[in-house]
Amino acid sequence: MCHVPGSVPAIPPIAGAAVDSEDVVLTSKDGTKFQAFTARAEKPSGAGMVVMPDIRGLHHFYEELALRFAEEGINSIAMDYFGRTAGVGKRADEFPWMEHIPQTKAEGISDDVAASVAYLKSPAGGSCTSVFTVGFCFGGSASWLQVANGHGLSGAIGFYGGPTRPGRDGSPSVVQRVPEFTAPILGLMGGADQGITAENIDEYRAALKAAGKQGEIITYPGAPHSFFDRSFVENAEASADAWKRCLAFVRSNAK
User: Fold this and answer.
1) pTM value?
2) Which run of H or of E encompasses 134?
3) What are φ and ψ of residue 157, in 5° steps?
């Protein structure tokens, strides 16, 4: 599991910020219905964010993150991965994700992202003019891949995603698809992540450079996998910096 039960993003709520939020059910192009949670800003900037969870799917952690983005003027939607195998619903700590994550397909995830992007661009989602993705672990690598999938994104952010591992369905790795990227990426990685090595990260940087693609990958020395968690007090500085970089990335790449 990426984040521990009861985890919340390492971002305190903005006092007095007004955010409109609700549960929604979206439909992918193959007819699959899936759960999502949307948060709309009181003073929208025109930017939108698709929040892509870790292996747990639409967990409360990611609803909280959508709210934090909306407080910053970024309309957001947090999506679930498991509409095809577990039906419409949110995923609590006890959700048996190990039964469902192997059944996910890169194509299905991309189609669900497309539906989420379309929602953000619609009047219901705030008529966003620039849409980004942000993901964590499984969702981190999936987020980067979306700038190669024809969604018209303005950028993609990944926290501790695996850049060199092929998909569970045999689909190409992030590094393999770098030449297809059509927008900038931001990577936020833990220097003490035992599952993603410095060599993996260097390979990603090299692939971006070789393909002439715009991207920045930040490694936080001593930070573990899943460091972006309010309970990890020792990683507060890295988390604060990562959040600032997320917001700056959106503002610098929004149209």
Assistant:
1) 0.95
2) strand 130-136
3) -115, 135
Instruction: With residue 23 as reference, give the H or E element that holds it.
Output: strand 19-27
Residue 147 in any domain: the answer is yes
**Chain-centroid distance, C-alpha 166:** 18
CA dist., res. 255 & res. 142, Å (int):
23
pLDDT in tens, 10-47: 677 765 565 799 999 999 999 999 999 999 999 999 99
- Count of C-beta atoms within a 10 Å radius of residue 237: 10
Token pair for residue 115?
A: 């539906």
Q: Assess if residue 7 is contained within a domain.
A: no
- Which CATH number do you get for residue 131? 3.40.50.1820
Contacts of 202 (CB under 8 A, 6+ apart): none
Domain that holds residue 185: 19-253
Instruction: Give the other-Cβ count within 10 Å of 152's Cβ.
Output: 13
Cβ(219)–Cβ(198) below 8 Å: yes
Specify the number of domains making up the chain.
Answer: 1
Give residues with Cβ within 8 angstroms of 75, minimum separation 6. Answer: 38, 39, 40, 41, 44, 47, 48, 49, 69, 120, 125, 126, 128
**243 falls within a domain:** yes
Question: Taking each helix axis from N to C terminus, what angle separates 106-121 and 138-145, rounded to the nearest 10 degrees?
Answer: 70
Question: pLDDT for 88-139, tens place per residue?
Answer: 999 998 999 999 999 999 999 999 999 999 999 999 999 999 999 999 999 9
- pLDDT tens string 140-199: 999 999 999 999 999 999 999 999 999 989 999 999 999 999 999 999 999 999 999 999
Please check whether residue 9 lies inside any domain of the structure: no
60 φ, ψ (degrees, to nearest 5) = -55, -35
